[in-house]
Amino acid sequence: MPLLKRSTFSLLKPPENLDPDEPVFQIRFTKEIFQHYQEYLNRLNLYHKKVWTCEVSGKSNLTYEEALVCEQRAAVKAQLLPKELIVHVLQMVQYSTLSLTELVEKVYRSLLLDFFEGLELHAKKYGSEAACKILKAIDSGSTKLYEVGWLGQDNAAVNTSVVKADDLIRKKAPASRNQLKMFIRDSTSKISPWIVNADLAKKYGIDPEPPKDIMNGESLYKGRKRFANVEGASKKLKKDEKLIGLPVKYPIDDLLVKPAADDLVLSKRPPLSRGFRVPVDSVGDLLMVWDFCLSFGRLLCLSPFSLSDLENAICNKESNLVLMVEIHAALFHLLMKDEGEYFAYLLNKKKMLKVTLVTWAEYLCNFLEMKRKEEFSGKVSTIRRGHYGLLDTDLKLKILRELVEEAIITSAVRGRLNEWIDQKREDARKNREEKKLSMEGLAENRRNHTDAIQNDKECTKNQHGGKEQNDLNILLSGKTGDEKMFLINHLETEMEQQSLRSCHLGKDRFYNRYWVFRCEGRLFVESAESKEWGYYTTKAELDALLGSLNIKGIRERALKCQLEKSYDKISNALDKRSKDVEQKLLEEVDLRRSTRRYAQPKEDSSSMSFLKYINKWK
């Protein structure tokens, strides 16, 4: 449950003796029921304040609903902790009286330094390194020995050996601190001391009985001290809940906006198009992969391609399409050049051949074997047999997403991102300086103008009258302020051109997100659950969307402002795409009517244009 200002918060119980025919008000995401509208409004307003904290991840400054979504996502991530680590971590957590930060650091160091049963790592074997799993520790006096099982392709132990501790090799920490923090929060019911959830304790054989020092109260002093102010926090919580009814001052949270008689008539929001070929819950992966490839195309040595081409290529059943091979090869080259985990894995397997149309599938199999994910492991043999094209579309996109996520943390990509950030900061600094100079220039102009008028009054009557008018014209013709503002606008344009291609414009009343991509003439809409996507393709739809946004709400006011600011660019992109689509349709119609249509290859269709892709930056 989300925390209110990091304190426990309880939902209201249903009213007693409620008449079945009595009209009530219910909050959608908590299911709480109210008999009076003002009470409902007060509670809803509290939920929409950014005072809530995700109980699992600890992320704060959220609304109640955002905290709920955050908890769901964090709980999923928490369950991604490798299974072989769970028992060891839970044993260290059970009845610990350390603070969360201290406990996470202790567990992290243990995973980094200790060897324990179930841990998967590498060990020296016949002069090389091989993946293995510790089966048990062997007590042999001063020398630490471990029985390990050597892991095969399906991650199962093929045979066993006894190795020394010095021969065990750990290439990286098996879990991050953040992952451990989420797992600990998600798997415990109390925090002073930490107590593992009863079902988890039973499942993994964790002793539910507290140690003697806990029973005697010897280790609880720190915990009691940390929670000594619970009573004060509770009083403050009750005070926050007693919201005073004040006159409405707009903008307010969108869900609290009520129609009024003097409101402008809002147009009906246009329905979204959903003409995707990939599964609806894979559209986010499709956009992420495409945007990364275009944003870092020069770094990847991968020339641009359209979103439609990528989508059609992903859905095609051919196994060696040039576009798909080039994307994978570019990502493999980047990972190998970084000399990270993938590079080390290939060196261990002694497979450092050139990535080609023939060898790329083997490199992909090596990557999937390195990742050791269940959803991928069963498909390695299919790819190795040359049937990559037969994989499900969503699985192809998941694999590409894994590759992109590995690519993002390479030193080359991080370096490029740092360059962009530094450039933005530098441009912002120049922007501020230009604005300052602009204001100083305007002030100087005013002073000079005032001095000129004063001098004119002090001039003798026999002074040449035309000279002063000439000086004033020269003064006004400088237009220092306008020139500075023009330069500022030019700098802003340059900054935009150097930024990443994707742009999050804002959210609507129901938290749906709106996105534009510079090379794609569509306005994309992502649902609040991040599962469903849609888009608008025409200027008329854009106008109708603008007319449907209520500026009395905080989110829709900000969204409308961003859409109006980028209106010309977005509408021009929509028009251009519409004309391109219309032109392609006309060309296809002409092709079908042509007497030479049977001599034309199938790939002349716009939906098959991905077959013509050539990597010009290779």
From TrEMBL:
Region (Disordered): 445-473
Keywords in alphabetical order: Coiled coil, Nucleus
GO CC list: chromatin; nucleus
Localisation: Nucleus
Pfam families: DDT, WAC_Acf1_DNA_bd, WHIM1, WSD
Domain WAC, first and last residues per copy: 22-128
Biased composition, class Basic and acidic residues, residue ranges: 445-470
Entry superkingdom: Eukaryota
Keyword Coiled coil applies: yes
Alphabetical list of InterPro entries matching this protein: DDT_dom, DDT_domain, WHIM1_dom, WHIM2_dom, WSTF_Acf1_Cbp146
DDT domain boundaries: 280-341
Protein name per the record: DDT domain-containing protein
Native organism: Urochloa decumbens
